[in-house]
Amino acid sequence: MRDFHVHLPQAQVYVFDNNSSDNTGQLAREAGAIVRNVAMQGKGSVVRRMFADVEADAYIMIDGDGTYDVSAAPRLVDRLLHDGLDMVVGSRVSAGQGAYRFGHRTGNSMLTGFLSTIFGRTFTDILSGYRVFSRRYVKSFAAHSSGFEIETELTVHALELRMPVAEVETVYGARPAGSVSKLSTCRDGVRIFLTILRLFKSEKPLGFYSIAFALCALASIDLAIPIFVTYLETGLVPRLPTAVLCAALMLLGVILLACGIILDAVTKGRIEQKRFSYLAVPAFDPSGENA
To answer: Whole-structure pTM over 0.90, yes or no?
Structure first.
């Protein structure tokens, strides 16, 4: 709070207290913040409430653990407003060995690479909690996630609508003494991976179901080859259950492919509606001529 008063004194600071067991809310009020209590547990639930409650031209989202460099906030906001962007991500550059744990760094790299393969390479740090958003981004974001996978959903929303975005390196420091991260490398890493798969299925259904079709078709053909060879040699089909399984797998694959084609058409319509919601919010005009 003190850092924001120094580096961005014109900003209105909100603190969203997600069932903390210490004096977070009281200390934030004493420091001049507007405090909101969010009873539904999880970072995704907090982001959904933040985006619904706050009205602004530029939104800075930052974790309250003191690890992000607040002095970079004016630079991120300036980049957003004057370049006409919808999201600027503060990619983390570790200030020391203990600041950014090896497991978190490795998992972030793997998940970023996986996401880039599906949705396109734009960011190097998809899990950063330091971001600046435009109003039109915030008011077009549905926020389905409930936990730490919300950063993945934030990234995919920008990529899906092909928003103008940027990434700026920021220093990532160690947590204050006595502060413990709630992020579990394995548990939350798996949740984020599953979120990427879910978003792949919902946002690119043709690609997702085409992969499922290919797997079923390959399995069916692999099992069918010995049956065809035996039939050509003897004129008999001695393994009838296997033949039935081959036919069932191929039929399942065709059904999955048909589902992908149908859902792809539905998804395109849904993305168009999200695009219209995004465009319904006027872009920020730095000159103020259209205000």
So the answer is: no
